[in-house]
Input
Amino acid sequence: MIEVFTTGGTIDKVYFDANSEFEVGDSLMGELLAESNIRDGFSITGLMRKDSLEMTDEDREAVRAAVSRCAAERVLITHGTDTMVETGRSLLSVTGKTIVLTGAMQPARMRRSDAIFNIGFAWAALRLLPHGVYIAMNGEVFEVGSVRKNLKAQRFERTS
Amino acid sequence: MIEVFTTGGTIDKVYFDANSEFEVGDSLMGELLAESNIRDGFSITGLMRKDSLEMTDEDREAVRAAVSRCAAERVLITHGTDTMVETGRSLLSVTGKTIVLTGAMQPARMRRSDAIFNIGFAWAALRLLPHGVYIAMNGEVFEVGSVRKNLKAQRFERTS
Amino acid sequence: MIEVFTTGGTIDKVYFDANSEFEVGDSLMGELLAESNIRDGFSITGLMRKDSLEMTDEDREAVRAAVSRCAAERVLITHGTDTMVETGRSLLSVTGKTIVLTGAMQPARMRRSDAIFNIGFAWAALRLLPHGVYIAMNGEVFEVGSVRKNLKAQRFERTS
Amino acid sequence: MIEVFTTGGTIDKVYFDANSEFEVGDSLMGELLAESNIRDGFSITGLMRKDSLEMTDEDREAVRAAVSRCAAERVLITHGTDTMVETGRSLLSVTGKTIVLTGAMQPARMRRSDAIFNIGFAWAALRLLPHGVYIAMNGEVFEVGSVRKNLKAQRFERTS
Output
């Protein structure tokens, strides 16, 4: 059983013409999994719809509590990329679970997006990794204690 | 470095109106990886464009030879789902590599397809699995020696 | 009010992996109109789901009867391209209506398809044309009495 | 021959993760026409890439001059929806041409967008309308002198 918690981020952005801008919308996760022929063995809960630059300590505590409380041993969290590492590090205190955070550089609602690849990638990571907290982005798995987002290159990379 | 070999299958089918049917076309792999923000660290070779029901022993030997000969330790093979297990088993003699076979139930060229999820899933499987031959389909990893395609349910499942 | 009758054709084809082939499925028309922000002022009826090479005289009579009987003055018919002209010509006896037939060379369910462009094109043709029967394909409007499908070029063209 | 001038607007917006926002990008027009099986009989020129709330009198004069100077009798202009009517009205002085303005409420780069339907709709309008200036949006044709954008309903409608 995989428990999916969605918190917002670019992956879930929707374009609102009335405001001439995007806003974080409903998670597309359920629809993307169905399209990908994944029909059972998971549960999806929307925790919040935040741009990750706006995540607060309370938000991170709410995520930690939900992850900690759930029965599943494997947890996928979709999250904005800007502070994915911070949220990941706040989850290091949770034991007995494999926790993978992923997101996307392009909203899942775009014709061309990294969202579905990243979700599939994270899904396999959840099946195969030992307990711990990981970031799954740009086709690589990173332990959350040794990764950062390189803003200039717009990619995640290992720190020494 | 991930070596990608494409052999055809549903994943690469194209619709030809002149023939009123779908035929295996060029692999979409390069385009899908670029959309998914995966830009380096891999090489793609199209070995053949076959519906997997039409794969012969010569075809399987050609695949085995290409996999065996390549320098990479991680090999992804896209393949039709009907005989993916047979081709996988014929690769058990190749040592020193992690080999993952994947494909799709819906062509990658469809608006709704499991192709990109499966490719992302297989990409992570390649990063994390020890040497051996595996099938990555419907969100699970199977050792090739203990999996079969359940035609009725249209899913891959473990055999005892 | 626009009355939409769907009869099948490439535009509605779906890929069925179990059969390794396409088949005509439910019309995607309602979904495509909603995506295109067209939410009212029309009604959709699925008359049949046929590859147009398999349309019979009874099928064409059923189409003619439905068109003739409906209250709307503007009628859109989605149809396979191979015998679209024949069906169009069988509708010349219907008076007092603007009837436009369209379809697609690539199923609407493909990522890249002419389906939505053709539907939008036909929608405007319905708003602007006088009573009569027309084919709207490859970005042109043809009177049904002077058009044919050029099989080699895979395009519709005017006959002298 | 249809002359296409692109000026920006929602239809051409691209999502830039680095800025956490959508910005007007290259026009997707050429790619959308090719997907729609429209391969010749048109020319595309990018005049500017502006959100229409930022169009100035100089911008409108540049559009008017380009339209006026071109040889084609049929001109399609893609434009942001917020001030499409203003730009349309500034073109009423151009004679001897059928000019249709269209755009989209959702960027063409989204999986679900009204962009392709609107372009197809406008293409037919160009084939069928007499000389003059028109807005083609939400499945209707409006003479530019008697239309406005209803901001609340997010639709174009006829004024008395």
